[in-house]
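In this supplementary section we document a worked example of the pipeline. Step one takes a protein sequence of length 173 as its only input; no multiple sequence alignment statistics are reported here. Step two produces a three-dimensional model, which step three serialises into structure tokens for compact storage. The input and output of this example are shown verbatim.
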Amino acid sequence: MKSLRILWAAAVAASAPLMTGAVDRTAGLEQRLLAAHNRERLRVGVPALAWDKALAADAAIWADALARTNSFEHSPADPSDPDVQGENLWAGTPGAWAPEEMVGYWVDEKHDYRPGIFPAVSRSGDLEKVGHYTQLIWRSTRKVGCALARSQKEDILVCRYSEGGNVIGEAVT
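The serialised model returned by step three reads:
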């Protein structure tokens, strides 16, 4: 009888995270990030993105560098590079955000977005209020790769895009 109680207690303890909803919020990270991007791209009528392992590897290098240095800034770009990658960054409380919520912060910028020729695409005139969104929906972008790293204070998501968007003088969608 005592061993049955111990077995029952062990079973309850093992299933407690599932019963309380405590699951890994980033399980299936790559697929979920790609799906979140493509839902918004479908909504605005631009082609879906494909996941790119090389872009994800580049994103991981920068995400790890940011986490290691406890900094948060875009990677330096070489303007002479003909294949400049686009980049979106996000940071938040460790373990508290699902991939869809991370991308959702970029999608929420659509409230200030107006279709047009870049950079005249912000209702408020503040390009920083729409820059993540415009990269996410940039018509000629075809590939994305992302990586998540944890610093001492936050989770950091870096997404890289090819072809990079936010090109002055070009239409967004």
